[in-house]
């Protein structure tokens, strides 16, 4: 695989890993690279899809990009950016934006955008309150869907009550309702998100013109100190730690604890233990309905389903509480700094007209920006976890009928695409109704085994951070701010390291200089390796990793811009961070000592060789 002088490898030069060709071909046809895709620039969306994608999990990309495109292009009518194309190869999702360049079309879209966006901005609080009601109703609707089941005989009551529609029909009905609900969730997701970013971007562009020397980080600090639902799960873990100390049951929580044993012990020790368990239940519903990842993989289980991540944080929080150490987010300090920055830059403006515009833009940004993080709790986490668990119920039903072989299990369902799963459901409906054996037990086991092997093989291979010739400019501010894709960064990604092999550059997400041991974490399952004081090096992180922020000294990511989720979370926790380095997880070895300068946006490798794990 070679990189030409102008840019990254062309999509056509990326070969399917030998032995995985059938698994690659099983992804939907419209997600496969075709020759004309060589004419476009693509980048690997490791922010949302850092691991190879199971076939069913690709619905998380499809539904998201269907909704994002519709809102960008047809609903909000963004003037210069339409939707995002997506492709998959070797389990890796690449995306490329669709830009508007024709001046007449841009002018037409500006007029449409203004009337639509202004309506939202003028009525933001009321519309957002309605949005929360819509999301909670959608969640309740999904929770109310019955679990799929097939009785030996239809109950007599079915026809006596005048229904006479057999249980097999409900399988198809419920599955289609789940798919429809998931797509609808993503439309709700994008109703406010891009307008939230848009308000900030307008303020950002004003500041760049008014204050040419201002840094991206300084502008982002002007909207720091937010309250959003996505931070609430971590707040609940802290609350549980405080209650454990207050109730005198804190000694039960230790590193590497057996969680089931701890729960049993607390139930047996008396009222204080039972009181703490009651507090746990209060926190779990709804605040533990968050994924250990970012909500795009079925196996990133929620805290509700797997208590490992929140319980791993309890000993550290308890220790700090008993030592009198403050464990709260530095929100008050951030707000104080924010207000001072806003006032200082306002004083630099020359005219009352400029100050009035500045006041209007920063006020709007403060009103709308909390949504940029808050929506994640309802959408990517609560609803998506519920959705995957409902799909698991179909997996359990198919496994019960031997669709995945004698050793099959419910998780095997995620190796089928959403369309294949519907066909398997219909196969089961047919066999139940006809009274004959289904074809699935002979059809699916080999394919599931083949795809399991492909996922494992793809995981061994790295993938280029981008494909195609680098464009002269990256003008989409969302791509700049969220993914950290700028022309300068792409040039840095193309650098083979010969200029300074010990330094990486990225976005200065949160200031501070920290030296420490690099802990390269490439998946959620590796979080447990993080030791006190380590520097987290990852493709991307998200707000639900917040409980581990008490352990780490700094964070570095491959992907992300100044307003990526990782950058926002780092600022909210006062954690020095550099995002969007492009290749930190491949250039930095696990155990090496590194220096992170979150103010300059640089990461320096201090040791040539990694330290021993037990050193």
TrEMBL record:
* The PEP-utilising enzyme mobile domain, residue ranges: 530-601
Q: Under what name is this protein listed? A: PEP-utilizing enzyme
> Native species of this protein?
Aurantiacibacter gilvus
One Pfam short name: PEP-utilizers
User: What highest taxon heads this organism's lineage?
Assistant: Bacteria
